[in-house]
Amino acid sequence: MHDFTIKEKILSKNDELAGENRVLLRERGVYSINMVSSPGSGKTSVIEKTLEALKGKLEVAVIEGDLQTDLDAQRIKKHGVPVRQITTGKACHLDAHLVGGALDWLFSHPEVRLLIIENVGNMVCPAEYDLGEDAKVLVMSAPEGDDKPLKYPAIFHASDVLLINKTDLIPHTDFSMARARKNALAINPGLKIFETSCVTGEGIDAWVNYLTGEMMTVVP
Q1: What is the pTM of this model?
Q2: Which CATH number fits domain 2-218: 3.40.50.10300, 3.20.20.450, 3.20.20.140, 3.40.50.300?
Q3: In what order do the strands lie in the sheet with 161-165?
Q4: Which 3-state string (H, E, C) describes 101-125?
Q5: What is the per-residue pLDDT for 218?
Q6: Which of 4, 110, 198, 212 is 20 to 30 A from 204 via CA?
Q7: pLDDT per residue over 149-176, tens digit each?
């Protein structure tokens, strides 16, 4: 009971800070997405492909969350967009306080209209922590298995969009796209699902078109 009470207080405070982040981002006309996944899903590669597709069309900034190193931030920096590293140490997820601490940096780039937050690779804790984002985007990859939604239902239930990535590897696995979709939609019937490959480019344009369309409905 004691541990449960502490957790409830932590999440309540986080939700309060997330609400403040959301208000500040909306006031500045910034649309934000929180990208979550297990390690190795190709989340950073999806972000890179998204940046390539939006280059010259939309100003984007990226917050990179990692336990250690700034290797992903270095990859993103090569695309010429503002990037801020948040190193969490032992914490397996970003929270609203950490993201809120980066907003002054973000607002020093007034041209930015889209903020992509790459969360720490973890399919458990990020399900419970609102960062103030407009949408939570989950990336899973074909090599992880089509039963992933059944094993980690909370993150699928909390997400708005699912990218099923690394589709180019499906012929080398026993992954079933039909089963993956069925399992994901059984957990969350409202999920918008895209099938993507950063090797072949499959689905990237469809994902980016959807993202910009959603963005225009919130921060036109």
Answers
A1: 0.94
A2: 3.40.50.300
A3: 83-87, 60-66, 114-118, 31-37, 135-141, 161-165, 192-195
A4: CCHHHHHCCCCCCEEEEECCCCCCH
A5: 87
A6: 110
A7: 999 999 999 999 999 999 999 999 999 9
Mean pLDDT of 114-136: 96
Instruction: Quickly list DSSP for the chain.
Output: -HHHHHHHHHHHHHHHHHHHHHHHHHHTT-EEEEEEE-TTSSHHHHHHHHHHHHTTT--EEEEEEESS-SHHHHHHHTTTS-EEEEE-TT-SS--HHHHHTTHHHHHT-TT--EEEEE--S-SSGGGT---S-SEEEEEEEGGG-TTHHHHSHHHHHH-SEEEEE-GGGGGGS---HHHHHHHHHHH-TT-EEEE--TTT-TTHHHHHHHHHHHHHHH--
Count other Cβ atoms within 10 Å, centred on residue 36. Answer: 30
Taking only the tens place, the pLDDT of each residue in 12-21 is 999 999 999 9
